[in-house]
């Protein structure tokens, strides 16, 4: 038996329960991973509150972790007992001391990246990778907008985009977060609810507006994000921190300049094992080079995951947060 954080019904953080659960032996195509650190992500909130549906209840939360392989299934050839591994966007179940999962959802961690860093960056860092390198491949000279620039994905995107030669405009909720975003590569930082976002973007860009907006906030920022785009610009809506975006009349995209709109997910971009490995390898490389530094600004014992959720939802966190078994 092991301990895990589970929910028996959807709702607030109080629905999260620390309890004993069985640990099955790995099936033929699975590995058993003993977790050393677990990542906290906003998608965990969505599964907890019911915005995203769990396969069944009770359910163990969590999408991301790093640890050591303790056992392998009979058909697993790429991993061995003792390998240091990490994963993100596997089926939920990371809020546990250990778990089994399919080996094609796991990647090996380079020797010079510790488990806590790996757990803090897999989901957020691979999200930044596909957004910047595949959804809208940024190029040197681009000016881009990153919402929630002081969050886990935001801080990685600010650093990575700057390294690629972009000018980053970030939005944050407080002056303290503005300073953090600037320290990590954002050239301009605007305070949500205080600055007139489209007007400031127009001023910063000399009227040219933006080729892309990366928006993880959702309902509260969607319409103003569209107003920041240049004709033929791309609106990338990849999160719902303020709530889901209401139904949209696609005629708005024509009226605002033949805009593109996409709602991507990391699960789609890493569905094939080859894409997962390529995405993780690119992320590991940019971290190893020093161009992107992973900021673990909060950690909680795994048994106190409810407290971590409260901090995340109340915007008290910056950078990455990890849970420790």
From TrEMBL:
<keyword id="KW-0560">Oxidoreductase</keyword>
<dbReference type="GO" id="GO:0070402">
    <property type="term" value="F:NADPH binding"/>
</dbReference>
<dbReference type="InterPro" id="IPR002364">
    <property type="entry name" value="Quin_OxRdtase/zeta-crystal_CS"/>
</dbReference>
<feature type="domain" description="Enoyl reductase (ER)">
    <location>
        <begin position="11"/>
        <end position="323"/>
    </location>
</feature>
<dbReference type="GO" id="GO:0003960">
    <property type="term" value="F:quinone reductase (NADPH) activity"/>
</dbReference>
<dbReference type="InterPro" id="IPR020843">
    <property type="entry name" value="ER"/>
</dbReference>
<dbReference type="InterPro" id="IPR013149">
    <property type="entry name" value="ADH-like_C"/>
</dbReference>
<dbReference type="InterPro" id="IPR013154">
    <property type="entry name" value="ADH-like_N"/>
</dbReference>
<dbReference type="GO" id="GO:0035925">
    <property type="term" value="F:mRNA 3'-UTR AU-rich region binding"/>
</dbReference>
<dbReference type="InterPro" id="IPR036291">
    <property type="entry name" value="NAD(P)-bd_dom_sf"/>
</dbReference>
<dbReference type="InterPro" id="IPR011032">
    <property type="entry name" value="GroES-like_sf"/>
</dbReference>
<keyword id="KW-0521">NADP</keyword>
<dbReference type="Pfam" id="PF08240">
    <property type="entry name" value="ADH_N"/>
</dbReference>
<dbReference type="GO" id="GO:0008270">
    <property type="term" value="F:zinc ion binding"/>
</dbReference>
<dbReference type="Pfam" id="PF00107">
    <property type="entry name" value="ADH_zinc_N"/>
</dbReference>
<dbReference type="GO" id="GO:0005829">
    <property type="term" value="C:cytosol"/>
</dbReference>
<dbReference type="InterPro" id="IPR047618">
    <property type="entry name" value="QOR-like"/>
</dbReference>
<protein>
    <submittedName>
        <fullName>Quinone oxidoreductase</fullName>
    </submittedName>
</protein>
């Amino acid at each position: 038996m092991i301990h895990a954080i589970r929910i028996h019904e959807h709702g607030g953080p109080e629905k999260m329960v620390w309890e004993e659960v069985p640990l099955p032996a790995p099936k033929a195509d699975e590995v058993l991973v003993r977790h050393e650190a677990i990542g906290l992500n906003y998608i965990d909130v969505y599964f907890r509150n019911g915005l995203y549906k769990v396969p069944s209840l009770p359910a163990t939360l969590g999408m991301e972790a790093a640890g050591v392989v303790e056992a392998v299934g009979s058909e697993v050839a790429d991993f061995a007992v003792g390998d240091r591994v990490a994963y993100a966007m596997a089926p939920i179940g990371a809020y546990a001391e250990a778990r089994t999962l399919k080996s094609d959802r796991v990647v090996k961690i380079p020797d010079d990246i510790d488990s806590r860093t790996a757990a803090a960056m897999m989901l957020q860092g691979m999200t930044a990778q596909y957004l910047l390198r595949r959804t809208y491949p940024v190029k040197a000279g681009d000016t881009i907008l990153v919402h929630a620039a002081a969050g886990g994905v935001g801080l990685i995107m600010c650093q990575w985009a700057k390294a690629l030669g972009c000018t980053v405009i970030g939005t944050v909720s407080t002056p303290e977060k503005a300073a953090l975003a600037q320290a990590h590569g954002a050239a301009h930082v605007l305070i949500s609810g205080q600055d007139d976002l489209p007007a400031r973007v127009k001023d910063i860009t000399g009227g040219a507006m933006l080729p892309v907006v990366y928006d993880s906030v959702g309902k509260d920022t969607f319409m103003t994000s569209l107003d920041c785009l240049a004709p033929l610009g791309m609106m990338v809506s990849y999160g719902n921190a303020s709530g889901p975006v209401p139904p949209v009349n696609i005629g708005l995209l024509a009226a605002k300049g033949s805009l593109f709109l996409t709602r991507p997910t990391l699960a789609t971009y890493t569905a094939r094992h080859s894409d997962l490995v390529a995405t993780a390898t690119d992320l590991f490389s940019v971290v190893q080079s020093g161009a992107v530094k992973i900021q673990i600004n909060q950690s909680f014992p795994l048994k106190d995951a409810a407290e971590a959720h409260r901090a995340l939802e109340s915007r008290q966190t910056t950078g990455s947060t990890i849970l420790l078994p």
